Amino acid sequence: MSEQYFSVHHCLSISVIPMEQGFELPDHDTFEAEIPEPFKISNTIVQLDLSNARALRSISDDIGYLVDVINQQSRKLNLLMTHILMQDDDPQYRHLTLSFGGSQLTFHTSLALEKNQLLRLKIFVREEASAVYCYGRVTNIVSEEDRSLITVEYALIREDDRELLIRAGMHEQSRQLKERAEKKYQLT
Questions:
Q1: Which pTM value belongs to this model?
Q2: 20 to 30 A from 172, CA-CA: which of 23, 24, 104, 143?
Q3: How many structural domains does the chain have?
């Protein structure tokens, strides 16, 4: 069993491509080679943005205007990157997550999936202007009326991508907690 990370309830667009019975996970080099180039680029951009954010925090407040301009340029690139990544989202495989985290995600589907079935996943993290390409394994299926709730653990994922999902989950949890606190404050 893989290491467990917290999950947050949040809707992300994902592509779920069921793998045929007997499919085996690729080795590391084959996996790296099959990751679409925009996914690799987005991860590099996210890493650079994090590095730049740390550097900008250490700069004096005297150049606040320059920091604002740099942040605006970064947002423009993020919007463009999000658009490029979404071109890899095939509507026939599109689903929305109920929750996601660093070790698993959940979603509803009408696809006939089986426990332990491997899935090729593309997880689009719009808020981070990035996407994750990985493989997952169905670990739980809860049948409902006309669809099922599927839990998928990541079976093959780059560590940088796992960290991106963890960071995105923390950002979303923080946003939800802030929103909840604001609602509570408004009620008093």
A1: 0.82
A2: 143
A3: 1
